[in-house]
């Protein structure tokens, strides 16, 4: 067996273990929390009072207009200067959550705004309150439209978690860096890490296609019944 292949096989368990312990939890937690932040921000921009709209716009402007790596450095290395100490995983989680929240808020805001006004009127006509109309009528319709762009955001997040290595989170890419430091084989190890990210992204892309097909069939069924 070639030495490079043996090195890849020996390194694979360590990389997969780092992905399981850190990359996957960081991705899932950041995305779920980011969606919650994004939904609240979108609702604030669409329906909130002017001061709240201004705060939401400022938040989105800041986190969409600055690099994610800089945001992570500010949270992990900058906040201790203000007396706020965070461990690496928590700092990464906060950074990714706020970043995803800013981007997803624009997606959610757009899909909610795209729901026809008649849907609101229909909900009000049968006695629904604003919150009931939003929960039972508007959000389900908006969610179907939001799946493709939010899925793309999730796939991008899987790859972006490699930036957490810069603030010492021992996720998959940093695991590769540590192995490189002892084997002095950066080309082989970084190719292996890239292939693992590619494999994860490919699986998620395939799942996205399946989900979109199911939603399209379900949407077509509802339209036919309507």
TrEMBL record:
Question: Which topology term describes how it sits in the membrane?
Answer: Multi-pass membrane protein
Identify the Pfam families for this entry.
BPD_transp_1
Among its keywords, does the record have Cell membrane?
A: yes
SUPFAM superfamilies from the entry? MetI-like (SSF161098)
Position of the signal peptide: none
List all membrane-crossing ranges: 15-46, 58-78, 84-103, 187-207
The alphabetized UniProt keywords are:
Amino-acid transport, Cell membrane, Membrane, Transmembrane, Transmembrane helix, Transport
Report the principal subcellular site: membrane
Domain (ABC transmembrane type-1) ranges? 16-208
Give compartment(s). Cell inner membrane; Cell membrane
Top-rank lineage group of the source organism: Bacteria
Keyword S-adenosyl-L-methionine assigned:
no
Q: What protein family is recorded?
A: Belongs to the binding-protein-dependent transport system permease family. HisMQ subfamily.
Q: Which NCBIfam families match?
A: HEQRo_perm_3TM (TIGR01726)
Q: What is the name attached to this protein's record?
A: Amino acid ABC transporter permease
Question: Which source organism?
Answer: Ollibium composti
């Amino acid at each position: 067996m070639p030495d490079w292949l043996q090195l890849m096989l020996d390194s694979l368990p360590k990389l997969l273990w780092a992905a399981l312990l850190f990359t996957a939890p960081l991705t899932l937690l950041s995305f779920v929390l980011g969606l919650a932040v994004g939904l609240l921000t979108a609702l604030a921009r669409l329906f909130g009072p002017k001061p709240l709209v201004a705060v939401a716009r400022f938040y989105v402007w800041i986190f969409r207009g600055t690099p994610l790596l800089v945001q992570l450095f500010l949270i992990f290395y900058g906040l201790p200067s203000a007396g706020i100490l965070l461990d690496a995983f928590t700092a990464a989680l906060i950074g990714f959550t706020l970043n995803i929240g800013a981007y997803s808020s624009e997606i959610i805001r757009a899909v909610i705004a795209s729901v026809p006004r008649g849907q609101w009127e229909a909900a009000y006509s049968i006695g629904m309150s604003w919150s009931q109309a939003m929960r039972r009528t508007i959000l389900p319709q908006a969610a179907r439209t939001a799946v493709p762009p939010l899925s793309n955001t999730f796939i991008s997040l899987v790859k972006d978690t490699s930036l957490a290595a810069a603030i010492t989170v021992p996720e998959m890419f940093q695991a590769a860096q540590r192995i490189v430091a002892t084997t002095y084989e950066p080309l082989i190890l970084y190719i292996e890490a890239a292939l693992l990210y590619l494999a994860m992204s490919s699986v998620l892309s395939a799942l996205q296609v399946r989900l979109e097909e199911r939603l399209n069939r379900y949407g077509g069924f509802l339209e036919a019944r309507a």
